[in-house]
Amino acid sequence: MYGARTSSRHFRPNPRYPRDTRARLRRPQWHGKGYREGGDKLFFQLHRSCSYGRGFSRYFESYETANMHDLLGGLENEVSRDYKLPENLHFEFFLRRTQIIGEDALVGSVFDGGETVYAKAFDDEGIQFVFCSGPFGDVWQAKERRGRRVSQSRNPKNFNSQFVIYLSSPGLNRSDTTLSMISDLSPPGFNESDIGLPRVSEFLHSDSNRSDFTLPGSSNPLPPNNSSTQLQN
């Protein structure tokens, strides 16, 4: 695992991507920076940022002599195994906040192993979506987040269904999955006033007063106060 041979090739850094300032270790760690398997295969983390929450990562391997077109196609195929995108969404991949594009540059000019690539889902307007799994099926929901990728500000009060994409089976109507109001589930002739709790005064005798009641084990310091009884001098 340790002490694997590093790449014998020297690549000119691609100016599009920020340089990785981490130093290579003399004994590169497994799947880390500078590690090569077979002399030309490197590994990095592919993070599924399109998943709801913090997402998750898996290793992805690529040859350092492949071009960025091949790398981008491999990334899309790998993420497509985990997520099914609607027609109006597409994947984008980022390295150090820089979007990866297909070009003739070699992978070795961008990657040295041990990096993290972030996979995200966007629509044509640049709104980011995340995958959510709920009781009524799988949903792609717009992600509220500050940044340049959000093309317009949205108030939660004005949030409508165009920012939620349902992945349902054929023949399933979204209106069938809506929850009915409690009043709609009530039997005929049901009145909400029938379940109201009676007030405490209804439990008391007409001639009784609250001061006549004492807690068990305690004495009542006040005498009964009956409005019908009058003190005579």
Proportion in β-strands? 15-25%
Q: Report the end-to-end length measured between terminal Cα atoms.
A: 106 Å
- Count every beta strand, where a strand is a DSSP E run of 2 or more residues: 8
Please summarize the sheet with the most strands: 8 strands, mixed
**Secondary-structure element order, as H and E?**
EEHEEEEEE
Mean pLDDT, all residues = 72
Low-confidence residue ranges: 148-162, 168-186
The coarse overall form would be: elongated
As for the CATH topology of the domain at 41-152 and 159-170, it is Ubiquitin-like (UB roll)
CATH architecture of the domain at 41-152 and 159-170, please? Roll
Q: Can you walk through the features of this model?
A:
This protein is mainly β and about 230 residues long. It has one helix and eight strands, in the order ββαββββββ. Strands 1, 2, 3, 4, 5, 6, 7 and 8 form an eight-stranded mixed β-sheet that branches. Strand 1 and strand 2 form a beta hairpin. The longest helix has 13 residues, at about 70-80.
